[in-house]
Each structure stands twice: as structure tokens, then as C-alpha cells.
## 1
Amino acid sequence: MSPPTHGVGILGAGPVTQAIHLPTLAALGDTFEVVHVMDVDARLAESVARRVGAAWTTSVEAVLADERAEVVLVCSPHRFHAEQVVAACRAGKRAVLCEKPLAVDLGQAGDITAASAETGVPIVVGAMHTFDPGWLAATARWGDLVETAHTIRSSIVLPPNPRFEDFSTEVASRPARVARDRHDPEVAAEIVRGEVMGLAVHDLPLVRAFCPDQADVEVLSCHVPAPHGYLIDLRVGGRDIQLHGSHTDSWEPGWTFEAIGDDLSLRVDFTPSYVPAGSATAVLRSADRSEVLGPHPANGYEAEWRFVADLVRGTADPLDVRGLIDDLAFALDIADRAAALVDGSTGSRAGAPA
């Protein structure tokens, strides 16, 4: 007898839900069933729910009260993540998967920690690269690279999200994009903070894996290139870190993570978020060997949902919430320090840490 499917309730029916999670859950139809979709836009909630034969609502409470919704997926705007995660925990759900970031400040993070401790409900953050089979294969083979790496690089070059979203599905009610003046100091700071917490955050847990001493963070420079993106140089615990992201109208995309030591280096090439093209490919190189790991059939999104299924079935240990909060604190610290260095007249500034 095959195991039963597990009901999923979704909070927020925007492009990430439509173009990433619904296709992933459809591919795992023998494991999950979307049973309830919530969005503050009633027409959007109804439209998305109709695609999967689910109930729809504009009420968070209605999803949380639905006993069929064993798992809650939080895909709402960032500012609502923490309160909805806490509410799902206190509603007695069997697992909560929250898109990045888990919260927007450490006060909210404290609320999540308390709710998790009170309820025992397992929480997963949608940092899909930490679940990617190519990345996990590398972690099992890199030996002492964490201790010996001196340079870490994350580089993300992507066309605008709508281009990928349109490849994946017909997106209903896409939010309008408003042009902003990156030369305005306050706007530039908001852009940097948004880019770190919206894009760089995907790989910051990977960076932190190589930087156990996250308290020793120095942001050396920050640049806001035209028309969109970020370039941040920092040092963490004596390691040089380079974070680069850009949005272009050209092809092709590139998403790479590198860790470089004196005797061994790692390069991981990830598939773009909206492309279900299997796992990353990791390459470990030394003077006398080059080892290629992957690609594997499943991508990080599928792997994270399979992990959620194991949590619900009691066959996997919950993640340590303290580690998730540490990832969040690391990202918030970098975002705040980088934003403080931005000079609106040039789009960049080098200086001492904030």
C-alpha cells in the first residue's frame, strides 16, 4: 500500500507559488495534495486554487483551521512570514515550510523560536540550495575545505523573474514593478537590503557553512550597478567573501558558488530557481584530481519537499531552529552593513564596517 498524501495549505498565491511550488507539488502528487489556497486578492486565490482543485480563501485563519492542511507553505510578502509561521505552529500543523527570509528582524525571529519551542512543530526555510543533491554530494566529499578555504564567491546572473515565470506557467496577477532612483541614498539602501534579503539570501546559508564565526563580519564595499543588482565585498572570520548579483535582459543565466583553498577548490553551478532541470553540478579540484558530482534528477525544491514529507511521517529529524535563526541573523547583518555603506551619488562606497 502506498503512503497517504499529505494536505498542503498555502498562504500567498503569487508567482513563487504558481511557478515553483505548484509544479513541484504536482510532480510529487503521490505525496502531497494542495487542499487550501489563501491570498488577500480573492480573484487570485480562486484562480490558483482552481488549477489544483483546492478550496480558496482570503483568510489565513481559514487555512489554519482546515484539518486537511497538515503542512502550511508560507509564500506571503516577507513582512508577514514570521507571524504566519508562528500562527501555523500554534495551530498544531505537522510542518511549516516558509519561503526566504524567515523573518525581517531578530525580534520576529525570537517569536518564531519561542513558538517552535512551545509547539514542537518543525520549521523549514525554503533555502533550496541547502537541499540540492549536488550541494549535499559536495559536502560529503570536500574534506577539510571548510577549515582551509580563504575565498568564497556567490555569483547570480539572471534575467528578470517574469521571464522565468512565463516559462513555467501562466502567472496570474503579477505584481507591478516600479522604477526607482538608485542614486537617492535612501532608495539605494533599500535596494541593497532588498537584494540581499531577496536574492543573495539563497546562498548565504552556503556562505555561512564556511564562516562559523559569523559575529566577525566586515562589509568592505558595496556597489549598486545599473540597472539592477549588487556587488558586495566583505570579510568574515578572516575569509574573503564576494557576493554578486545582476539582472539582465540577455541570456544565458549563471548561478555559481565557489569556495577556494590552497589545495582544494569547489565550484557549484546551480540551475535557475524557476527551471526544474535537475540538481546542481559540483566540481572539486585539487592538484591531482577533478571530481564531478551530479547532476542528479531532483532539484533543491523537490528535495526540500521530500524532506517535509519525511518530517510529517516522522522519518526525519527536525532542523535546529537555532541554525535557521543564525542564517537569518547572518543575512540581516550583511544587509544592514551593506546598506549603510551605499552612497547615493555614486551607487557605491568603500569604508569601515557599520
Note: DSSP finds twelve helices and 15 strands in the chain.
## 2
Amino acid sequence: MQIRPVFTALRRHRLATLLIALEIALACAVLCNACFLIINRVQRMKMISGVDESSLAFVQLTGFETKGAKDLNARMLNGFGGIAGVLSAHVINTVPFGQQAGTFGISLERSMRNIPAVIDLYLGGPGSLEALGVKLVAGRAPQLADYVTLTNDFPSDAPVLITRSLAEHLWPGGDPLGKEFWSGGDYHYRVIGVVEHLAIAQPGSRGVASADWSAFAPVQPGPFLAGGYLLRTAPGEAPRVLRDARATAMKIAPDSVLDQDASQTVSDLRMRYFENDRGMTRILIGVIVSLLLVTALGIVGLASFWVGQRRKQIGIRRAIGATRGDILRYFLMENFLIVSFGVVLGIGLAYACNLMLMKRYELAHLPFYYLPLAAVALWVLGQLAVLGPALRAAAVPPVVATRSV
């Protein structure tokens, strides 16, 4: 069919055409960026922690005297070991998705002239690394002689295991085993092993790229490592074990304070950590559905108005030989052109919105393939929305041409 008559008709209704095109442009921009945000949130929620989440629980005590920390650790580990379903109990400073602890910048030079990464340092007593269930991919696990005594909040000189992503970041393409790094110039660490994954305690706090930049230092429990307890349980027993462990902790150390928020199964800690992401995803999905529905209703309303306004013209065309298919294709083509114009505007608007999000919220650049996908979605939506009015237009009989308006 010829497109010129369609353009001629659209020029006669510039304002209505422009309003629908702008609505489609807004829908295109929101659709691209909202889908991009949703996918980013979903990928974040699927983040690999590297630990056996379903079989781990964490108990946190506060408010105890530091001088009695060693005795407290011994009593707590003994009490937790007697709970049915507990395979092992260990002292550790935190767990993935738990409270942030041991965060500092590191350098490959003692002078600290350059700080290439900010990491989380996990401090764990004997057996804690094995209890976490991390996968060793290079080097060795800590031996008994590797567990150093703490004289401060962090070990001043200790062997560590680091994640593969951190190793690749610090020594791209190189062998990290035996390499050294420093923190503050006085804290020295040497790499004895590499684990596949071990997410930092708050994996979204410093960006997705650094969510796995962590190290594990084997240390002896004592005054500077006390109150945090990792329980490895039998499969499916973590919730019940946690319930019993809370009660046990209160019996053993009634003068201490049990941190209810921090004392959770690691699975529950993950669920709570990503609660805002799930809420934002639901909101964005609601925004997309609402905007597409409004856009579709706008197309239906405009097309229905035009069908009623052009009813006699349609009858005349039918009287001089136009088929139902010709009328149907006319309205589908007209809507396609309007949607295409809106999509072109929407592409520019989508990138403008993305640049704003990149500047304010450190969002990544919008991938190009989102644009054609959004265009196809809006074309399909537009054609489906106009199909009802177009079919009614195609059903107008030629006799309408003989009636007075």
C-alpha cells in the first residue's frame, strides 16, 4: 500500500500524533532502563557467596568482658557442640551477608603509595575455613602452625587465602601464591592459597566488581576474636540448630547480649540482605506494566477516535473497491509509523536517562541490544493495541458512503 496518504492523514492530526509518539518515547525510555535495572538487581541477588549457606548458622554475642573472652569462647564452643545437628562450631569475626568487619585498603608496596583494592579480612579460628565450605582452587588450606595469635584487631603478620577474583585483580595473569601485600604499612600478609569465591560481608557496598574481594586469615581465638560463632549443621537442620543455639548462648553467658539481628542462618542473612533489591524489582515491574498498559490504552483510544471520525471516508473507500484487508493494513501502517517515531525519540531519551543514572547511582552503561528489544516490544504492543479498532474499521460496510453525516 502507498504510505503517502498515511503521512497526509497524520499531518492533519499533528497534536494527537505527537502526544501518542511522546507517550511511546517515554515508555521506550522507561522500559529500557527499568529492564536494565531489574536484570542488574536479579544478577545481584544471584551473587555467589562461596560458602555452604544452607548448612551454616551464625551466633553473635556482645557486651562481654574482653579479659574473659578466651574462657567465653571455650564455653560457647563446648555448649554449641552438644546441640543435636551441629557438626562443628568455630570462632569467626563475620560471615557473608552478615555485619561488616575487617575492611581496609591494601597495597602491594609497604609504602602504600598505591591502594589497588579495598578488601574484607575474615578472621577465623581452627576449622572455620573448612566449615564455611569454600572451594580451594590453588595453594593449601591453613595448617595448625598458621594460626597466629592476635595482639590487635588484625594480625600484623599472617598467611592468608584470597579469592580468585582478588588474585586476578592484584596480579593479572600471574601466580598469586607466595605474593605479599600490606595494609597501613605495618600489617603484612602473604598468600598461601586461593579460593574460588568468598563474598565480602556486605557484597553490594563497594560495587559488583569488588563483591568477592576478600581474604581469610587463620588466627587463634582470644580477646580480639570472640563473640562470633559459626555453626555447621546437618543438611536442613540450620533453622532448628539456630533456635537451640540462641537458647544455649543465653544459658552459658546470661550477662552477655545476644545480637538477634546478626544471629541468623546464612540463608536468612542472604534473604534479608537482598530484601530491598526484591522490593525494588517488584516496583519496577509494576511501573513497566502500568506504563505499557497506559500506552496501549492511549493507542486504542486514539485509533478508536479516528475510526469513528473517518467512518464515512472508510465507507467511500470500500465503495470504490478497497477491501477489508486494505483498511486493516492502513490502520496498522499508520500506527506502526507513529510507534516508530516514538521509538526513535525514546532511544535518545533512554540514553539520556541512563547517563543520569550512571552519574548519580554509578550504574553501568546501557547495553545497545536493549534498544532493539524495546522497539520490537513496543511495535508488537502497538499493533496489538490498534488491532481491535482496525478490525472495526475494516468491518465498515460500503453503504455508509451513501449516508449523510
Note: The chain has a mean pLDDT of 89.
## 3
Amino acid sequence: MLDVSDDVRAEIGDEEADRLLAGDNAPGAYDCTSCRTPGNSDQERTSTVLFVGQETAVLAFAHATCVPSQVVPVSEEQLAGAVRSITAEESSPYGAEPPPAQHAPAAHAYSAPPPQQAVLGVTSGVVLVGGEQRPALVVEPTGPITRPGATGHGDDFLALLTEQGFLPVVDLGRPPVAIPGWSVLLAMGQLHAVLMPQAGGGSPVAWWQAHSPMPLSEGWRSAVGRSQQVLVYAAAAGTIGTQPREDQLRAALDRAAARGALVGASMPLAGT
């Protein structure tokens, strides 16, 4: 019950793709590379996901309900651990399923900033929305974000996002609306990027990209496995701050919403 996309087929070749579809190299039981929960290719539809580095490719498997079959470009360093896990008994020339991500609480990941330039900090957490535990990302710059070409020193961060389709959040009891073309890229059970559509069409581009893959808690991954949606909230610099616990993160979000200083959007996983 494997799905092999045309992109994956082009990378691994028709012969290997046909062997997978015939069941010769089917994984049987596996851990989903997206949500990290168990799956079985003999009992449920399963996507083949090919992680491609500069010199190495690793074939992994995911629930078809989590992500479609696709090719995911990653750095060679990200694949190193997965390649080391390959044993002599494995028959696939494209490697082994990537090892599970380490479980971690809500965490921060920042891009490397040029001098005196604000960058986007991203915090992951599970928030209670409408009585349901939902996976969320909270985006907050390290300083004011001005509109490109502006000469002043104001903060246009929320205005720029509103122009992209984000809407003000006034009640965290309801999930924010979805905006077309935006998605959240998870790979190997870790957060890699928030993607946005290009103005002229074509493949999405990274609006935010982790400097290194960001670990996600087991609770976060379980929540995204249930909903297939990520709630992305954004606030101006200094609004949320560093919150060591998810209940404190939710309280900070409530305060920001009450002040009209929070915008949000719901996003699917990349490729779904």
C-alpha cells in the first residue's frame, strides 16, 4: 500500500520504484517520519519520502494521511545520523528510516542574524483551543521589523503579515483561519521551515527557516498527527518573550490578543 510520487520515482529510478510498489522493499512496520507514531505499510496507505542531500539520499516512510510522497532536500549533515544507522541487513540502496527526533519541550530556534538585524524567533507549544490540544508555533522577532525601503524606525511586522493574509487574533478559543499557499515543513519529526507562496507562482519559498532542525515535543507531534494543521501566531518584538512552560506561553498569548497585538493563521503540513 505504498505511494511513490513521480518526483521520488525520478530520483530512485523506475526499477527501484517498481520493486517498492510490488512490495519487495516495503518496510512493513515503521515509525512515521512526520508524526513519529507507528505505521504499517501492509495495513494502511504509506508515503515514500526521499530526503536528498548533496551526496546522500535516505528513503523514509510516512502515513499517507500525514504527508504525501515527496522529495525533501536537506543538508548532508542532517542525513549523517540516518546514514550511520544503516545496517548490512537492509536491502534498500537508499538507506534507512531516519532515527526519531529527541523529545524536547517548547524550544527556540533562530536564524543566524547579520549585525544589528532583527531575526524571527520561533517557539513551539501545544495550546488548548476550543477544548482541544492543538500544535502551535509562536513567531516573535528579536527587534522591530520595518517595511522594506522604509526609512523610519517603526515596527511593521504585524501589518506586513496582515497583508499576507494573517488576521488579528482576539479569542484564542477559536483557531485562526487558514491562508492559501502557506504551510509548515516537518521532516524526520523536526521543524524545518514555514513556507509561503511566491508572488509569481511556482514552488513555495521559506518565510522562516530553522538554522538547524528544531526538535518538537512528543505531545506536539501527537497533536499535529491528529489535526494535520499547525496554528501559527505572530506578535511584535517584546510581546510574548521567553516562556518556560506551555501554560505561561498560553497566558502570554491571551494577553497579547487582549491588547490587539497578535495575528494568526492555520497552516497544513507542507505538501498536504
Note: Helices lie at 6-12, 14-21, 76-84, 157-163, 218-227, 246-258.
## 4
Amino acid sequence: MGNEIQLISDGDGLAVIGNATDVERFLASEGLPSKDLGVHRLKAVFGTGAAVAQAGSEIAASSGRWVKLTKESAERVKKFGLMDSKTPGISHAMIGKPGSIKKWLQIEKGAGSFLTNPARLAGVAGIMTQSSMQQTMDEITDYLATIDEKVDDVLRAQKDAVLSRMIGMDLVIEETMTIREQVGRVSDVTWSKVQAAPTTIAETQAYALRQLDALAEKLENRPKIGDLAAKVKEVEPKVREWLAVLARCFQLQDAIAVLELDRVLDAHPDQLDQHRLGLRAARQNRLDLISRSTERLVARMNAAAEAANSKVLLHPTKSPVVVQSSNHVVTGVHDFHARLGIESGRQSSETRRWVEAAAEARDRALVTGANGVGAAKNLGNETLDRARTTTGRLASGIAERVRRRNEGGDEEERDAQG
């Protein structure tokens, strides 16, 4: 294949296949971090025979790297003009660095062995899906390491039967993934250990989502800031725990999907592409379900923060508690979304701190007079307005009585003189 390399994208990642040296040069020239794709496993796609032996030798001579497509990396590869293939959701291009030309150029002719063989292209797509899921699994591991409680401690502290079953299945899946790494495939015996896992994990996910919904409901209809502060403070650590459980569930579901693709690649390679698409659809459904539940929680926390903001000067000790806890929960949810790859259309709530609210009230008070500045430091907007109105009415009443008294005195004086 010379110094030609092939680019294959499924929207989530980019496979770069070719001679190892050329692949490394391309990735270095474009500044793209990558990891091994494992193209050697594609031999299972072709069965046996002379043609297969040739395909196997081509695969053995090729190097494959996988790049996670972020906004930045997607922009870098867009210039190579990847085109849609007959494999659903897959685009491709062949590029080269002919002669002394320093830039990589798209090659219009001679599409290359991987791109002209539908089965091989489907095989690459399946392995890319595995790489994408394993990347998410790694990011979830990093996420769980950053929260205050370790997920294992959170899970083992639970007494629920549903979580207990999931913990047991967790250990089995980890063992199966370890065997896969050592052997390079998933045998019938290995697969039999985890066949019941999807049901157990789905039960745990549903349970965790119900717990989050229940926590969101606790924040409804609590107009008193004192009650709201107590509930938000109670909810905050529990949300973090249930997000950890959800993250672990999603991680295990991705692990099962990786194992499934290995089984299909090994036993029914002709069904690999259909199975890949089915797994992607099911995975997106799970993401949508999790997104809806967590966004409802975010909406409740934002509403609580807004309620606290509106009364922060009336409740200088309780309101900041609500705002701080709300911010922690919302930030945690958005971090959770980012690790799972959930596109969130909302930014974290920009709630105001005590000093910001006081400064805003002070600025408004400056419009009505210097006396309002001192009052704004200790009184909320509503109290300040009421105090100002009451003072005005009192002053007007006193002035009116003084005026009448003076007028009455003037009349008496005129009568005496008459």
C-alpha cells in the first residue's frame, strides 16, 4: 500500500489504518492522540481459504490506531473529505503523502483493501465501537475516582438486594474482561458467566433512577427557605452516591457490549454490523433515559437556587446553603453527563452568592438615596421597600399634623387679636 493510509470514521472515533510508520507519522503531523485498534482480530471475519490467507497477511501487515473524535480532532480530519460508505454510519477516505509533498492528500483512485471489502469495513466498525465504549469506561473510572466517596464504598454500604446482585455481577464482569485481555477472545465458557448480567444491571439502573426521581420530588413545594435548606443539604450527598451507582451501571453495560461484539465477531461475523447498530441504538436509549431523569433533578435544584436567590438578603444564613448545595449537585450532574457522553444543552446554574446579591441590592438602593446603602446591607429588597414606604408614610403623617397644628395656632392668634 506504499505510504497510503486509510481513514474510517463512525462519528465517535477515527480509525487510522496502514503501515505502522506512516500511521504514526500521520497522527504526529495532525497532533492526534490515539490507542491501538487491534485490527489483527479481523481475521475472524474471513473464515478460511486462499483468499482469506491473503486477507490475513494484509491485516497482519497493517497497523491500526483509534482516535476519539472531539470537536477539535473532528475539525482536523474534516479537511480530508471523508465520504459515506455502504456500511451505515461509516465514512472513509484514503490519503497519501506522495513524493516530496509535505501535506497528506486524499487519493481519488485505488480505494484500498479495507474500503473495498464490506465485511472488512464492517469488522473495523465493530472494533471501533468497542474502542469507543472502552474509552467511556476509562473516563467513568476517572470520574468515580474524583468523587468524594469511592464507588465501591458506596455500593458495599448499600443493603438493598438489587444493589447486592449488581455488586456480584460486577465482579464476574471484571473477571471476564481480564480473561478476554489475556486470551484475545471470548469463549463459550467465558461468555456463559455473564449472560445474565444485562438483566441484573438494568434492574439496578432502574432502581437508581427511581431514587434520583424521589430526591427531586423532595424539593417540590417547600416555600420556606429553612425547610428548603435542610432538604437540599440532605439531598446533595445522596445524589452523588446514586450518580456513582448509575455511572458504574453504564460502565458495566458497555463492558457487556464489548464482550458481545467479540462473541459475534468470533461466531457470526456476517451479523456483526447489524449487532453493532443494535447496540448503539440501545446505548443511546439508555443515555436518553438517564438524561431525562438527571435533567429533572437539575431543574429542581435550579429552582431551589432561584428561590434562595430571591430571598438571600432576608435569609443570609440559610439561602447560601441552598445555593451552594444546588451548585454542587448541578456541577456534579454535568460532570457525570460529560463522562457518559451526554450532550447537555444547559450550562451550570450561575447562582449568586451572598455578596453578589448584597451588591446588587446596594446598587439598586443607590438610585433612591444614600440612606438605602446602609439599609441594604442588613435588609432584603422586600423588607427595604416596606421600611422605606412605612418611613415615608410616617414622615408624611407627622408633617401633616404639624401643618394643621400650626394652622390652628395661627387662627387662635388672629382671633385673640380681633
Note: Residues 371-417 form one domain.
